[in-house]
Write a structure and sequence with these properties.
This is Intraflagellar transport protein 46 homolog. With 203 residues, this protein is mainly alpha-helical. Among the domains are: 31 residues, no CATH class; 67 residues, no CATH class. Helix content is 37%, strand content 0%. Helix 5 crosses helix 6.
């Protein structure tokens, strides 16, 4: 078959318009587990069994987890009452004067741990007023009366439980002998909310 190069310049390509549709592609969810550890480890030269993967965490990564940081993270996520009383792992840095990188890494790990901490939660056994309701503005008569009296709670002749009752009742927080701790928690929560509002308004 002879191929004539002269006819190449006469060829005109056809313009074909392709019809297309945009369809979202959602792949099927296939539950899967990670690779199974076969426990095939290189033995130590001295022949001692270190039980990597059985009693010691085996991480396929060059950056191993710090045992002290890992212990604090696990204790942070634990809600059990005895978590804080168990034996703690203490971080020790050898030759700290020359090992500034380890100190900086420890500080960064602690800052990251504090940022990831859960907010302190308290389970209230008795119903307490809503914080938004307690933050509502007082009537003008009450504010004028308080400004006239110039009330100084430190001069009251009473013990601490009675002082708690006076302060909480002044702010419409109900108190009883068995609910003072919950009333104080509500009082301090109200204080933090008001302080945050003031900081946002004046910032």
């Amino acid at each position: 078959m002879d191929f004539n190069l002269v006819n190449l310049s006469r060829y005109t390509p056809q313009k074909i318009e392709l019809n297309y549709k945009l369809i979202p592609f959602i792949p099927d969810y296939i539950p899967a587990v990670g690779d199974i550890d076969a426990f095939i480890k290189i033995p130590r030269p001295d022949g001692v069994e270190d039980k990597i993967g059985l009693t010691v965490l085996d991480e396929p990564c060059t950056n191993q987890s710090d045992p002290a940081v890992l212990h604090l993270q696990l204790r942070n996520h634990s809600r059990s009452a005895g978590a804080a009383t168990r034996q703690a792992v203490v971080k020790r840095i050898e030759d700290a004067e020359r090992n500034s990188k380890s100190i900086d890494k420890w500080i960064d790990d602690m800052n990251q741990l504090h940022r990831s901490k859960h907010l302190p939660g308290v389970q209230l056994n008795h119903a307490m007023p809503d914080i938004d309701g307690l933050m509502q503005q007082w009537p003008p008569q009450v504010e004028e009366k308080l400004n006239e009296l110039q009330l100084d709670l430190s001069e009251l002749d009473c013990d601490l439980p009675q002082l708690v009752d006076v302060v909480c009742n002044l702010l419409d927080i109900p108190t009883q002998e068995n609910t003072r701790l919950e009333a104080l928690h509500t009082l301090f929560t109200l204080y933090l909310e008001i302080r945050n509002v003031e900081n946002r308004n004046f910032s």
